[in-house]
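User: Quick sanity check before I run a bigger batch. Here is a single chain. Can you write out its predicted 3D structure?
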Amino acid sequence: MFLKSMANAAVDALFPRICPICNDIVPFGKGDVCPGCEHLLTYCEDPVCEKCGKPVDDGARYCADCERLRHTYDEGRAALIYDEYMSKSIYRFKYNGKREFAPFYARVITGRLADTIRGWNVEAIIPVPVHKSRLKKRGYNQAKLIAVEISKVLGIPVRDDVVTRAFATDAQKMLGPAERQNNLKKAFKVTQNVVKLESVLIVDDIYTTGATVDALASCLKGAGIKRVFFVSLCIGRGN
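Assistant: Done. Predicted structure follows.
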């Protein structure tokens, strides 16, 4: 253990950690984020929507989005509110090659939602797949990086072989709710026999309207999976 700690310290000294929030070098020995930066994050606190986990007013069971939309997934939660800090952080994670942010993101998710995830009794973690053209361009699937780190903490296996993205879709962030749903019709395809799986957990970086999770959940349930849950790092505030 001592030798492992010394080795980790040597790695940190030679290759300083980059803060996922401010993108500066984390002071030596201060962990995976600047001490002051983690306090800038806005966590999802109760009360939240019973369906998707977005913040709601006291006394409300569901957010406005879930009141008007019929979701295919069973339930989901997020760790953080998607704000200016996380917008910049996730952009660097997805488009600037900052793969090293994944352990921090997973730590935040499991720190807030481990008991919830365990209560769902999921048998496998399924990261939202990206199309092979985008994977080739980016070099990695950001959802899978987070899923792998969550798996290390919770001991739930990652199954990224179950479903693929059948074709490349337009960027969801520029589309409205109806356009998001149309954009994702038949976007996913099950590639493995999943009849032995009854309950799975979808992992993604951002949840907005739920169109992506619903499309994937519909595909998985169509293949025989009975219950589909999700966790995301961030979630919008809703309408």
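The chain has a mean pLDDT of 88.

User: Great, the batch can go ahead then.
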